[in-house]
């Protein structure tokens, strides 16, 4: 892997709270039949989609006007009321949601350098997730240094 010759100078740091339960999409998928083709398929129930859409809109409103980030370092602090919630799949759902909202360029290892995840148990109705994120804007990371004319 080739190291960059010049480190990007622009860095965006942000901390925000998304209010609501983060559902574990992988555990909530249901089996069904596609009405048009008759083939088996999996789908998310409408109530789960509604929760994810609401969280995505919150993230879009907070992140409005900022470019997606790459080379990200993030600290995620889940506030959960159910001690049996699936932490890994909730984390995956959160990263997918942040990618759809335009906070992350992609949720792959190439774009997320480090992530720390913690959780705290709270009373029902107080669920959500605190996100402290810092990274390089996608366009600034892709900008190539200009060659000087000799």
Note poorly predicted spans.
Answer: none
The end-to-end distance, rounded to whole angstroms, is 29 Å
**What's the rounded overall pLDDT mean?**
84
Task: Please outline the major beta sheet.
Answer: 4 strands, mixed
Helix content: 25-40%
CATH topology (level 3) name: 60s Ribosomal Protein L30, Chain: A
Globular, elongated, flat, extended or rod-shaped: what is the shape?
globular
CATH architecture, by name, is: 2-Layer Sandwich
Count of separate DSSP helical elements: 4
Q: Give the spatial strand order of the biggest sheet.
A: 1-6-4-5
In total, the number of strands is: 6
| CATH homologous superfamily assignment | Holliday junction resolvase RusA
Class computed from helices, strands and strand pairing: alpha+beta
How do the helices and strands follow one another from N- to C-terminus?
Answer: EHEEHEHEEH
Strand content: 25-35%
What count of domains describes the coordinates?
1
Q: What Rg is obtained from the alpha carbons, in whole angstroms?
A: 19 Å
CATH class equals Alpha Beta
What this model shows, in words?
This protein is of the alpha+beta class and 150 residues long. It has a single domain, classed as 60s Ribosomal Protein L30, Chain: A (2-Layer Sandwich). 27% of the residues lie in helices and 32% in strands. The chain has four helices and six strands, in the order βαββαβαββα. Strands 1-6-4-5 form a four-stranded mixed beta sheet. α2 packs across α3. The protein is globular, with a radius of gyration of 19 Å. 23% of the residues are buried. The model has no long low-confidence stretch (mean pLDDT 84).
């Amino acid at each position: 892997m080739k190291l960059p010759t010049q480190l990007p100078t622009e860095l965006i740091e942000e901390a925000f709270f998304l209010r609501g339960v983060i559902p574990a999409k992988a555990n909530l998928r249901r089996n069904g039949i596609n009405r048009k083709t008759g083939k088996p398929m999996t789908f998310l129930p409408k109530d789960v989609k509604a929760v994810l859409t609401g969280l995505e809109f919150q993230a879009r409103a907070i992140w409005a006007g900022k470019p997606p980030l790459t080379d990200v370092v993030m600290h995620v602090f889940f506030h959960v009321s159910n001690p049996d919630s699936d932490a890994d799949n909730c984390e995956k759902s959160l990263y997918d949601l942040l990618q759809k909202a335009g906070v992350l360029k992609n949720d792959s290892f190439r774009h997320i350098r480090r992530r720390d995840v913690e959780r705290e148990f709270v009373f029902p109705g107080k669920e959500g997730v605190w996100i402290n994120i810092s990274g390089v804007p996608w366009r600034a990371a892709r900008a190539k240094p200009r060659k000087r004319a000799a």
